[in-house]
Each structure stands twice: as structure tokens, then as C-alpha cells.
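To: structure desk
From: M.T.
Subject: fold request, one chain
Message: Could you run this one when you get a chance? Sequence is below, nothing fancy, just the single chain.
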Amino acid sequence: MRPKILVIKGDGIGPAVVSSALTILTELGFDAEFVFADAGLDYYRRTGRPFQPDLLDLARSVDAVYKGPIDTPKASGYRSITVMLRKELDLYANIRPFRSYPRISLREIDVVIVRENTEGLYVEAETMLGRGQAVALRLASRRAARRVAEAAFNLAIQWGRRRVTLIHKASILKLTDGLYLEEFYNVAKRFEGRIEADDAFVDAAGYFLVKYPERLDVLLTPNLYGDILSDVAAGVAGSMGLYGSANIGDRHAMFEPIHGTARDIAGKGIANPTAAIHAAVLMLRWLTERGVCGRRCIEIAEAVEKAVQEVIREGKHLTPDLGGSATTSEYTAAVLEKASAILEDGGGEEA
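Reply: Done. C-alpha cells follow.
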């Protein structure tokens, strides 16, 4: 079966890093139909619209969405396209794995953050109260808390993890975080004896990510906490430019790097494409789990992961953000060369 992928290249360095990842996948034999769509601040400036009119219809019709970073201006009426896609496609679980890289990481870390993706403060419900005061609505529902907890425990089973920890601040947010805490332990009962379950305050989780990351495994978080802790984990693991994420729902999925558009280096040919490559690897794994890809997709994913590790370990073709002087194309070529060699040694069936 030939997967159909919607590609949104995004803003800033988005087109460069997305093109890098797609080059690697196609050169390694990933046979897919790529449908390209426009969305983002650059498109908005050209057309007055944040995304092309049929974007949502396209996103619902494909096997997966693969996108680059998209700008969301601060303090404006322009709504986040990424958040919109997550809500419209009901992509309720945001999965962000962080694993150490040689030469780069501050500490050994192997953590997966599973972030609720559709509610919390990201419902974007704010208003002015007058007298210089503003208020934001934070939404928490039992349905959202329950299904993202189920996603975290199922991921722990599938990925061979040992423990899921709920991150919260129920000592202060007794209703909203308290609801997540209650639903978490209700779900945990069904996995008793297979996956450990515990909880931690969000401030303590930040401390442990920096100080003792080896104590953490799968972290389940409400929306905002996961957004913040992901950046902390990326800092410990080495760089925002190294990690991708999977936005997963019951029917749809979207894959993207976790970093921003880095407009200061856009067009200079020095962007680090690793996060976009990592997002593409997560996409291949998900497509295989869904039965859309054959064994070849897993072989490509594993080869690319190993290749990235080797390129970073050798340190000969690192982009400037990783302490090297390689261009995006040089780094891409190095990863592709090593991944090709790994596949030739291992073989495999067609995708």
C-alpha cells in the first residue's frame, strides 16, 4: 500500500529541513504520494489567509500530515495553525521522545513526554476584565484526561517502557489538575502489574529533568506543562534542533519538529534538519503500526536513526548549532550515506 502524505513546509527554515528529511526518505526507498499544501505566516502575508482553503479537507483525506515549523505572531488575532490542526483533526496525544546523543547531550536522558494536545490553556479563550486585568480559561475534561492517559500507558507497553508519571500541580489547581490526577489513576489500574504509575508536581519534574533525568521514563502532562517541559528536556538532551514530535489521534496523525522557524538563519543553508528527520522517523513507525507501510518502513526508520547517531558521534558533518561548520545539504548527505550503507547490510522488503 502506498501512503499518501500531506506536506506543509512551513515558515523560516521549514522548507529547508522538510526537504532534507524527504530527500533522505525517498532516496532510501520510501514510496509515498506527497501532496503539498501552503500554510503559515509567509502564506498569510502573500494572500491574506493563514492557510489554503482546502487544507483541512486535504488533512482529513491523507494517511498522515508532515509539516515544518510555522510562525504564530505574538499578541495578534492570528491563531496558531498548528493548534488549529491538532484540534480539527482531534490529535489529542503529542508524543515527544528525547534520547541522548553522543558529544551533544548534557546528561544521559531517555524520556518520552506524552502531552494532552487539545485543551488546557490552548483553547485560546481569553478576555479583558477591565482595570488592566485579563483572564484566560483553562479547560480540563474527563474525556481528554482519560484518553491521553490511555495513550501514555499503551505507548509504554508498545515501546517497552517501565513507568508512567503524571505531571500536575493539583495542590493549587485542585479541580483541573485534580481531575487529571483522578482519571490517571483510574486508567493505571488497568495496567497494574505491567506498567508502574506515579505522579509528580510540575516544578519538581523540571528539576529532575535537569538534575536526575535517569529517574524519569514516560511523563504524562496536561497541555501547557508538556510544552514547557519539552524545551527543558531538549536542552538537557542537547538541542531543540534534534527532536521531532508525533501528534496522534484515533484516525489522524501529524508529525513535526519541535523547534521554531529560526528566521535568523533561514536561507543561509545551515539549518539543522535532525528534528525534521526525527519527525519523519516517527511518521514511518506510525504508518507501519497502522498497516499502511510494510516492513521496509521500519527498516528505513531504524537505519536513519542509527545513521544520525553515527554522524553526530563522528562530529565531521555537524551544523553550526551543534558546534560544526557543515551545511544542511552536507549533513543530509552524510546521514543518507550512512543510512544507505546500513540498509545494504540489513536488506529488507519493499515498502
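Reply (cont.): The CA atoms of residues 265 and 271 lie 7 Å apart. Let me know if you need anything else for the meeting.
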